[in-house]
Structures are given as structure tokens and as C-alpha cells.
Amino acid sequence: MTADELKDRVAAGDLVWLDLLRPSSSDLEELRALLDLSPAAIEDVTASHDRSKVVRHGTTIFFRVSTADLETSADAPEGRVHSHRISGWVLPQALVTVRMDDAVDMGQVVTRWEDNSDLLRAGVGALVHGLLDHVVDGHFDAIQQLDNEVEELEDELFAERNTGRDFARRVYRFRKDLVALRRIVLPMREVVNALVRHRERNGSELDHWYDDLYDHVLRASEWTESLRDMATTVFETHLSLQDSRLNVVMKKLAGWGAIIAIPTAITGWFGQNIPYPGYLAPLGLWMSVALIVVLAG
Q1: Which one of 168, 169, 191, 200 has the fewest beta carbons within 10 angstroms of its own beta carbon?
Q2: CA 44 to the chain's CA centroid
């Protein structure tokens, strides 16, 4: 689609979706001039470390969200949670998305739109809903993987074999990945909530769809919070079990120390070069042996 065709379709009120992959600064500037976008929105697209957010500029809404992918490998040096940004502008009859990499499969988003093609009559709000719904579903997949992992940690925690440094390293890596995931999931509440506040342009037909999307976002947020509590509980329980096992070892050492003290004391007494009952006689040997056995027992 050329710039003139895009401008004509937007002017005609057609429902338009434009997806830009790795656009240059000149491409973004041309798009800004074509659609009369705010210069601040262009800066938000190129910013590399901003969190997910929604900003309204007149009749245009700018949003940025992040997907979440969790590696299955447990030896990722820089963490297993990877995020990919999707920025976009919501116009009255157009949705413009910008991606800096091709890690996000937009084909699945298109399939989601086609599966709910009746909703497209509601306008651009349906496109935004389908995109965000796909992003939130990806969050759920990553959270589910971490939930399965924390269950494995719980099973290993109460196994008969002792948990050592490797287990502590796994718990630390789990908490690190969970923190990275929470930074992606939690801001989605603000994003969806802000879009719901501006849903007068979406139409009442989409109200319950956005309410359902917001409910999913809340569930994802609450799930990550519960996983954080579980990770803390696992770590604290691990420390408690380590202390309990150390106490058992100390009790055993103290008991063996008391037992070893008995033959040490008796043999030391009978080893003195002074007369005593059984001195220089077999009776002394048998008396010392009997005392050691009885007292140690």
C-alpha cells in the first residue's frame, strides 16, 4: 500500500490496518506527516526502555505493549524471559502497528481477527482488542510455564534427598525470571484500563469483549503475584529445612561426642600409674570394658 492509497482509504473511512517492520526514522516521519501524528508519539516508538503505556493525542491514541516468551532452556545466561515491543496508533478508522523485530507472529493476530470477523463491523476497536488479546494470551503461556516449574521445585524441596547449591541457584533464577515477567504483565492493567476509558469510539458491541480482556489481564497479574509469594515460600522453606537438617546433624555430633567422652575418661583413669582395684590384673581390663559398654549404651 502506497502513502497515497493509505491516505485515501483513511479519508474514505475504510477500516485500515498498517503494520511497519523495522521502519527507519524517515519512514516514521513520513507516516507522522501523512496521518498528522504527534511528534511525541514518534519519540515513544524509538525509545528503547520505556514501559507499556497508553497516551492520547487529540483523536489519536498511542499505545505500547510487550509480548513475553519464556525459553525452555534452564541455562540461559541472561534470563529466560524475552520481550518484544509492539507500538501503535489507534485512529478513528485505522490501526497502525510498529515492530522493531519479527519475533511476534502477526499471522496469528490476523487469524484471530478472521475468527471474529463479525466484530470488525465495530471498527478499529475490534482490531485493537484482537491484538491485545493475543499479547495477553502469550503472557498466560509464559506464566503457566513458570507455574509448572514452581511445582517441580516444591516436589524437589520435600524429596528425601537434600537440596543443595543447585536447588538454591534454580530458585534464584526462577525469581529473577518472575521479576522480568512481572515487569511485562503488570503494566498491561494500565494499558487496557486506559483503552477501556476511551472505548466510546469502540462502541457498545465491544464493551463486554474489553471487559473480558481486562478480566484476563487481572487474572494474569494476580497469577504472577501468587507465583512471587510461592517463590518466596519455597526459598524460605528451603532455608528452614536446611536449618532443621543442620540441627539434626549437630544433635548427632553432640550425642556421639558424649559417647566418645565415656571411653576416653575411663581408659584415661585406668591408664594412670597408681594402684586401683584391678591394677596390673585382668580384673582391671574387664572392669574398664564393662564400664565403657554400660555407660556408652
Answers
A1: 200
A2: 25
